[in-house]
Amino acid sequence: MEVIEKGSTRERLIEKAANLMEMKGYFGTGVNEILKETNIPKGSLYHHFPGGKSELLKEAVIYAGKKQLRRYAEVMKGKKTVVDGLKAVIDCIIEQFYETDFQYSCPIGAVAIESANADEVIKNACQQAYEKMEKSFEAYLNLNGIDDALSMARVIINMIEGGSILAKAHGNVKHLDVIKDHLSKILTEH
Fold this sequence. Notes:
Layout lengths: L8 H16 L6 H8 L3 H7 L4 H24 L5 H18 L9 H7 L4 H24 L5 H22 L3 H16 L1
Helix pairs in contact: 1-2, 1-4, 4-5, 4-7, 5-8, 5-9, 6-7, 7-8, 8-9
């Protein structure tokens, strides 16, 4: 993968595409809007992304996944228990919903749902992003002595993704709060 130079045209396109996908999903993120908001000419987009929108959004999915994992790692850092760390992740998501008046979507989930049957390149990028998330949660759970960490990482990701979809649909965070309330029980019974 090509290293992104800070502030480069390529980086600005990827960041803007990732931000728009968080708010509008795959189909709601248009090339013209990305170009307008970055003030970058169309020729530059195709210079950096010869595959057009699909290639740009693939890179944006990868970028968004890494950014989200860094955010999660930051909020989990220094927590006394694994439950406290995971609650901090959910609180981070809740904060994103409040900050965006429930316009936020998981940067990977929204794209994965919309594009699973439409674009193989994007589908593969989403799979890669989720695999990295899975490995990160698995490592965190392993470090904290949780048995069958891979399986539990998958359960946690499924709960968080489902809770996020329901939070967006209902315009409230009660489904995410329920997950927080049950994390301790889920992790100790496993």
